[in-house]
Write a structure and sequence with these properties.
Order of helices and strands: EHHHEEHHHHEEHHHE
Structural class: alpha+beta
CATH architecture of the largest domain: Up-down Bundle
CATH topology of the largest domain: Outer membrane efflux proteins (OEP)
CATH superfamily of the largest domain: Outer membrane efflux proteins (OEP)
Low-confidence stretches: 1-19, 457-473
Distance between the termini: 41 Å
Length: about 475
């Protein structure tokens, strides 16, 4: 049974003092109420939904009232006698207009209905995008922490090999080349450690930007998780679902319908309009202080139809029709592009899931093999059939394989979410499914990997240096 080396000294230190852990679902729910991008999409959706009410207003009665009062100062010199005086005049009125035939208003109402639907689709798209961004940030942080832990373990193993090479060189059983090779690998590990630590901090800040919280330990993926192939496991069905259900494609399709109604609005500029109108008013005019003017009061009311027929508007209407036709063609092209992009996204995500499953299986097998290679090379080094560079290469391969496996596991999970997003049916239940694959009890627990410390030769209490192959030069 292998002795186990504890990895992730930095990982354990990152969360010192935190007594709780969080999982993917908790981070998403925090991000729902904090993320500025989603909040912006929500307010934009609320604003765009008002276009339906605005379009309906063009089909409903328009009622207005007016009132006025004036102070008048009037004079007249001729014909004689001269007249002058001051008086007040007052008036008020009420007007009602009900569209009877206005095709432009009807098309604008239909545009408002479609715009409200687009607003809802775009908001749902923003929610799906948030799910992907949260999952990406969550898994990037976990992966960066595991990467840092593996680099620290690799640095420790390389340091041990460096010390052994120096000791062997001092007693004349190896050459200075072995020392230089081990020193080079150790220096490289130190540089990688610094870069990896920076990546951990960047990944943490990205999660903070989404959720507004600096979390303690995150629940990692359970050991031995088996990934399921997409259901149905047929790329053509996923492509078809994406073309029909992808939210960007749906929004583009609705955009085309809105543009088509815009053609109707423009062409309506050639048609007459008919309105039912009614009005009622009162007018009072004061009298001048002389014999020739008297006070007047009057009321008036009217009801009827008002018809307006456009004859020529300087070519404006024809220009608007041409503009709207071009915009409709653009919307059709945008829709075609959205469908093709959705289909391509579904294909890529589908292949990403299946390729990821294969990669995980391959890297798991490779990790076992590379672990055995490290042990074999170290044993061979002790008995003189392997040299220092063989051990260093085997250790490098082992830790690189571990990092590739870690990345492949998280990429496969993200590919599953991207596939659902491409089909337009990514939901919180999908996050719950992935959340069930996490292990809250393992949050903050240092990562463990097999010990690759050189084993002593049987019967010896210390590490044995390899037999001399050549004299030190």
């Amino acid at each position: 049974m292998h002795k186990m080396r504890v990895l992730g000294l930095a990982v354990a230190g990152l969360f010192a003092g935190n007594a709780y852990s969080v999982d993917l679902l908790q981070v998403y729910r925090d991000a729902e109420s904090y993320d500025a991008v989603l909040a912006s999409a929500r307010y934009e959706s609320e604003a765009n939904k008002e276009q339906k009410a605005q379009g309906l207003s063009g089909l409903l009665p328009q009622i207005g009232a007016s009132a006025g009062t004036h102070y008048n100062n009037s004079s007249r010199d001729l014909p004689a006698p001269a007249i002058s005086g001051r008086y007040n005049s007052n008036n008020w009125g009420v007007q009602l207009s009900q569209p009877v035939f206005r095709m432009a208003n009807w098309y604008q109402y239909r545009q408002g209905e479609l715009a409200a639907t687009v607003a809802e689709v775009q908001y749902q798209s923003a929610r799906q995008d948030l799910m992907l961004r949260v999952a990406t940030a969550y898994f990037n942080l976990l992966n960066s922490q595991e990467t840092l832990a593996s680099i620290e373990a690799q640095k420790t193993a390389t340091l041990q090999q460096l010390e052994l090479a120096k000791k062997s060189f001092e007693v004349g059983t190896t050459t200075i080349t072995d020392v230089h090779e081990a020193q080079s690998r150790y220096d490289l590990a130190v540089a990688q450690e610094a870069a990896s630590a920076a990546n951990v901090e960047v990944a943490r800040q990205q999660l903070v930007q989404l959720s507004g919280k600096d979390y303690g330990p995150l629940a990692p993926l359970r050991d031995g998780v088996k990934f399921q192939t997409p259901q149905p496991n047929d790329v053509k069905e996923w492509v078809h679902s994406a073309e029909e259900g992808n939210l960007f494609a749906q929004s583009a399709r609705l955009g085309y319908e809105i543009a088509d109604r815009g053609v109707g609005v423009a062409r309506s500029g050639h048609l007459p309009t008919v309105d039912a109108v009614a009005s009622y008013g009162y007018n009072h005019q004061g009298a001048l202080a002389n014999l020739f003017a008297t006070e007047a009061k009057s009321t008036s009311g009217a009801i009827g139809l008002q018809v307006q027929v456009p004859i020529f508007a300087g070519g404006y209407t024809q220009s608007k029709v041409r503009e709207s036709l071009a915009l409709r063609d653009k919307a059709q092209s945008d829709f075609d592009n959205a469908k093709r992009s959705a289909a391509l996204g579904a294909q890529q995500a589908f292949l990403g899931v299946n390729a990821g499953i294969a990669q995980v299986a391959g890297y798991e097998a490779a990790l076992v093999s590379s672990r055995s290679a490290v042990e074999s090379n170290k044993l061979g080094y002790q008995v003189g059939v392997r040299i220092n560079i063989d051990v260093l290469n085997a250790e490098t391969q082992f830790y690189e394989t571990y990092r590739l496996l870690s990345r492949a596991r998280y990429d496969t999970l993200l590919a599953q979410l991207k596939l659902k997003n491409a089909a337009g049916n990514l939901a919180e239940t999908d996050l719950q499914t992935i959340n069930a694959l996490l292990d809250p009890e393992a949050a903050g627990r240092p990562v463990t990997l097999p010990d690759t410390t050189p084993k002593p030769v049987p019967g010896s209490s210390e590490l044995a240096a390899p037999p001399a192959k050549s004299k030190k030069k």
